[in-house]
Fold this protein.
Amino acid sequence: MKPSRLTRAAVAGAVAAGLVLAGCGDTDLPGGEEQADLSVLATDVPQIQTLKKLTKKHFTAETGIAVDYTVLPENEAREEMNREFATQAGRYDVASVSAYEVPIYADNGWLAPLDSYVKADEDFDQDDVFPNLASSLTGEDGKLYAEPFYGEGSFLMYRKDLFRKDGLTMPPNPTWQQVADLAAQVDGTDGASGICLRGLPGWGQNLAPINTVVNTFGGHWYDMDWNARLTSPEFRKAVGFYVDLLRSHGQPGAERMGVLEILDRFVQGKCAMMYDATSLASSIEADGSAVKGKVGYVPAPTDRTEKAGWLWTWAWGIQQAADDKDAAWEFISWASSKEFQELVGQEVGWTSAPAGNRKSLYENPEYQQAAGAWYRQEYTAATDSADPKDPGVGPRPYDGIGFLSIPEFAVLGTAVSEQIAAAIAGRQSVDTALDKSQDLAQAAAAKYRGE
């Protein structure tokens, strides 16, 4: 049994369990006086900031459609998105949804299908979109519900200059034990932490990398009868490894640092290694980065599996309650197009182009030259990651690599991530964190066991 329905009650519980949203809209309209034609909710990532800068000058100028962006940190964006889509309030026409939300939202009728728009818009070239991403954004009814703004896998980034200084060599396909050994040796060189990893609570924060470690160490969240397995030897070993690595050779205050915080430390030269999303490479190699040209890229570390990287996308979906779905598609067609990638390449720089979603980008000589340090690893990670249906060792009743494809995971994953963050902070042991998490996971799956 692989459930997919997210009930309104479940969303309400997720919202109630979260923090009160403190963000506010960010309009691009002159003087903030005009009424926007489209309202867009998005996560705060560098690619979105680039999109905002180019929207008025190009999209609005060409179409006459003004866009009002609300850009929030990932955890807050998810809370707002759950609240908005569950109630179908219509405040946002378009939102950046992920491979986790799309099947659930689609099954509830909260997203508008895009197939008719794609068919009518030949210039969009759907065949150019990576098939694995399109598949992840397709509902159980076979309809397409979102288009990827960018896609990503995960890989290990390391400071080649620091490794040379310490006489170290990065294996072409490292294991996690090799990474830990290297972190111990390079830790402190030129004041850098041995490795930077996400520690901030959130199912899309510290649990994203932790789940890839769990998978490759042979762990499962549930057995085939939906009994929780968070206290199994494999799960304990994986989480214990991650926590010990962070506490021994990671960045200070790790439990308060998510993807943006560790990226900031890495580009400032404060980390010798970082395991995270392939999409971060463009920021690492951007002008102004202290480590530009000094970084090497290798596949996600493994233990018992051949592959361990995640597959992810932030994609554009239209809320079913949107007033003008045609205008919403015009925005999506522009923001996820080959032409937009070309625009970013020409006006901002090819390293800032949203990547990991289209085949044509990797055939573009200009992108190949600009992203020469990482584009091959990025392409492989985005197209040949671990299999979401079989990402680890042995069978499991759910899909997903960095997340579980069940509606309850949004609340469960956040609660478990908080327990692990407390272990990273030293406020409790890993065993205590997982004992508590086991109880949470067992309760979350009660209905799948028929209880």
Residues 46-63 form the longest helix (18 residues). The beta strands are 26-27, 38-43, 67-72, 94-98, 147-152, 154-159, 273-277, 295-299, 312-318. The longest strand covers residues 312-318. Residues 202 and 414 are 5 Å apart (CA to CA).
